[in-house]
Specification:
There is one protein chain. The protein is of the alpha+beta class. It is built from six helices and four strands. A four-stranded antiparallel sheet has the order 2-1-3-4. α4 packs antiparallel against α5 and α5 packs antiparallel against α6. The termini are far apart.
Length: about 190
Amino acid sequence: MNRYFYIDSEGKQKGTFSPEELKSENIKKDTLVWTQGMNEWMRASDVAELDIIFAESTGYYPPQPAAQSAAQPAVSSAQPAGYGAPQQQPMPKSWLIESILATVLPFLLCSSIFSLLGIIGIVHASKVESLYIRGDYAGSLEASSQAGKWTKIAMWIGIAWVVLWIVVVVLIIAFGVSMANIGDILNGSGYEI
């Protein structure tokens, strides 16, 4: 017995389900389904193994072999764009390398404790691939979004901290130079300090 994926009314892929489990999912005759061995998504009413789901509904007649081949082009033209075999959606960006760099480099360069907020980005980035492999595309997309957000926060904190240090160093040098110039002016005018 095959296990099937199906596309719900919101366009999200769900699965895998046995034909009996699909019956409890309340799929309709025009719901797109896919199982291993199929070349493309098909309407549930066009899959012979799923006839048991619709047998109890009134007025349902299983498709005849000749009618199924005639209906085949209509199914492929009605197929939503972007749907194919499961796992064809590309894995979302993980942000792992970026989040590690945005966390570690500012901390090492300027000892900014705030850059450690990037650890939250690292945690979310480490979830992206495992969620994707488990088939939870929506979860991996959300983890990628969170990882990107926290990586950018850590990066901007790090940039701000480095700029702050540069400004402080420039001000200290400028203050030192101005104090040296004041000493020269006072020494040249005859006043002793």
